[in-house]
Design brief:
Oligomer: single chain
Structural class: alpha+beta
Distance between the termini: 5 Å
Order of helices and strands: EEEEEH
Number of helices: 1
Shape: globular
Strand content: 25-35%
Strand order of the largest sheet: 1-2-3-4-5
């Protein structure tokens, strides 16, 4: 269900990622920091990384359960840029 009072926006995550919130109320989080599932894991935060972790937050504040993809996690890691954009499109298209 789309909410009329939701504003689309970008936000930064301290030099290790970003979030995008869509008008449908879903937020996609793309992270590549020291604690994320990416090649920077346990190596310190960096402005760049070869891959990233993605999670999607529902309008109700709960994280989308990626177990629908067979893994049982709230995030997917070590994704290429081509894979990340698929999750961005997914988040934007959910109702």
């Amino acid at each position: 269900m789309k909410e009329e009072n939701v504003i689309s926006e970008y936000s930064c995550s301290g030099h290790k990622g970003f979030q995008m919130t869509f008008k449908n109320g879903y937020t996609v989080s793309v992270q590549w920091g020291d604690v994320n599932y990416c090649s920077n894991r346990n190596k310190g935060d960096s402005d760049v990384c070869a891959n990233a972790e993605v999670a999607i937050k529902k309008p109700n504040g709960n994280w989308l359960d990626f177990s629908i993809f067979g893994e049982g996690h709230i995030s997917e890691g070590w994704l290429t840029t081509d894979e990340v954009v698929k999750y961005i499109v997914l988040a934007q298209s959910l109702d």
